[in-house]
Specification:
globular; alpha/beta; single chain; 20 strands; 13 helices; 4-stranded antiparallel β-sheet
Length: 424
Amino acid sequence: MTRPDTTRLVMKFGGTSMGDLERIRRAARIVAAEAATGKKVAVVVSAMAGKTNELVAWTDGAGPAGAGLPLSDDEYDVVVASGEQVTSGLLAMTLRNMGLDARSWMGWQVPIVTDDAHARARIVDIPGDKLGAAVDGGQIAVVPGFQGVTLDGKITTLGRGGSDTSAVAVAAALGCPCDIYTDVDGVYTTDPRIESRARRLNKVSYEEMLEMASLGAKVLQTRSVELAMAKQVPVRVLSSFIEPDANGVMPDKGGTLICDEEEIVEKRIVSGVTMSRDEARITLLGLSDRVDAPADVFTRLAEASVNVDMIVQSQSRTPGAVNLTFTTGRRDAVRAAELMTAAKAQLGFEEIRVDEDVAKVSVVGVGMRSHAGVAQTMFKALADKGVKFQAISTSEIKISVLIDAAYAELAVRALHSAYGLETV
């Protein structure tokens, strides 16, 4: 494995950190403090908090393309990518005002090359030679996150949370670590707003962070963690509300390092408890018990790009039939229900039910690989609180249960205590 170039550093600031000119000045002071230590710095920025929502609303107001014309997804990207262009220019101007050599680099100038899936593009390549030469020459490069460019020169955007992915991709191109500054000071054992005894973790493995991000933790976007793991980019989550001292020196930054599992000496059995309310449960009652019925159901969902998570099949009261339950994100629930209803005759079920009053609670930890009894602890803790689960899904390092949404926070606190996470 190639060791990261620690003389270079990519720093990323989110929308809260870019929320107004004063916060941009604070971010500039943090960047200046890193540059003062001799680091060769590139900075990736999000749009100001709330700005992307405003831009999306404007595109909605403009309306769809007329009959016979292509969709306006490409022009949608032109509009919504402008938020990051504003903050990258403002941060570069602020750094220059402080006497530092800084320049903004638009996605097409780097270039950040993506496919042509507008509004949800994926990064294909970032040639790091030009950007690397600039930062090695002492320039602070400020790059707008969330945006890229196709091979034929069209602006693209990476989807919500895409600035995290941009930052990790730029760090991979430069072969260096990535510091992500946000409105929290690291990754916690659970959401501190739910459990006041939650503790900040010093280190989390890529795999744990990937599970936590996909299961409801809002600290990092899932694709950014996937990319960091694939490219072995060390990522540190830090608070953007720390300040350099009067001499421009940063205090101990703390934070959480997301790294390879081998770099974590003491493996915790469970590292975190997550919760997601973005869940919907769909049940097909009285589904034909023919052997290919489930395959027929999930083929139709897959072809419509509906992601399915938990699956439970149980015996129906109707002879020769079963009840099939699966979960999906709330955004996909209406589409999934419409697909199933439209194919009711072909699938052969009696009734469909959709329940959005559910939540998914999960425990995550690499230590599960080598420790027995993790599931027993989880189910006993929930039973002691009278919490019933409706579905279960597992992987090598996580267990998730679907429960009534009313019990979600109670379940999180119970599991946090059951695994002793307040003492990590």
